[in-house]
Amino acid sequence: MYIRQSKLRHLKEYQYSGVDHSLVSRYILKPFYTNVFIHVFPMSMAPNLITLTGFFFVVVNFLTMLWYNPTLDRDCPAWVYASFGLGLFLYQTFDACDGTQARRTGQSGPLGELFDHGVDAINTTLGVVIFAGTVNLGQSWATLLTAFASLCAFYLTTWEEYHTGTLYLGLVSGPVEGVLTLCAVYFITAIKGGSFWQRPMLETLGVPSSILEKVPELLRGISFVHWWLVYGGLMLGFNIVQSSLNVIRARRAKGLPAAPALAGLLPFFLTWLAIPAWLSLRPLILTQHLVPFLFFVGIAFAYQVGLIIVSHLTKSSFPFLNVLYLPILVGLLDAAGPWIRDFTAFYVGKAFGWRSALGDGEFETAYVFACLGLALGVHGSFVVDVITNICDYLDIWCLTIKHPKVLAGEKKKN
Prior knowledge:
Blueprint: E1 18-20, H1 23-35, H2 47-68, H3 78-105, H4 110-134, H5 141-164, E2 167-169, H6 174-192, H7 201-204, H8 209-212, H9 217-220, H10 224-253, H11 259-262, H12 266-281, H13 283-288, H14 290-314, H15 326-347, H16 362-394, H17 408-413
Parallel strand pairs: 1-2
């Protein structure tokens, strides 16, 4: 069981705490959600079902991408990109309305936060693949770097909420402005084509040649998508610092040391040191099987995020261990053996190391798919077990409303 029976009582102490400083959200999106779109959903529809329905739009986008562009480096029909933009916008809208629906129907509770964040965690990986295929990044280091940045930003938010008790969104955030930017990218791609983003940005934007001549040649030829990677790296660095400062302040306010909390970043960053090391030794995975590999990594990440959220809801200790990170370590050690033998033979004069059990071929590919199957099984069991325990303890249902909210007029009449 993923939740100890002694910790279940903390579920009834749950109170959502969130801060959203986004001006776009405050003056445009929230009025649209609460005054217009929320009325699309009947009062009998459970909030979690709204979340799941919105997620299906992204799943359809993902499957469409795999059908038209499985290698992530081809142009698709214009309507495909337009469907990506529409699907992502609907996902964002449904995801934002589930909280309002929970308050309307009196169904607010810890299961909603777990369900919402769990779906968002999986959606992050699917979104990376869709974006990479849209801008023709291909199965490359750039796609892997995009996955790292996206998953890291989400991990930081979850880790920060665990220690501060508050979900913090700044003036510019991924769930609001980031999603809207991606929607704009998809709609522009429907007009310009996926290859458009591989063009040099400065030249394409019409920067005068007199100015271009003064720009270093290295920067002059950088494409749109690589400029985005630079920008994303800078924003990620800012988020790491900001989230860390928020956690340090929260720990000091409680009279607790900050070092144990900061150690919660190690599982993620150590794993992402092992991943590129493994792929550099096994380039076949990177160049031919990156999509299933990212899917495996994404599910392992969603499992880790789920463990953190459950620990937050039940006031348990921070989960440092994740069994799904072990296959990554095993894959790295298997690939590193021959490299270590060659390295020591050349520089030491005597070979030390071990032979690879998988090799660099079909067995390595089979291992990646086995890791994916393992991740699906472990995360699937986690989802079923946690949802069942929470529903049983709180006497609720997950995708339907067990105890409908009684309005004031009806209560008085009864």
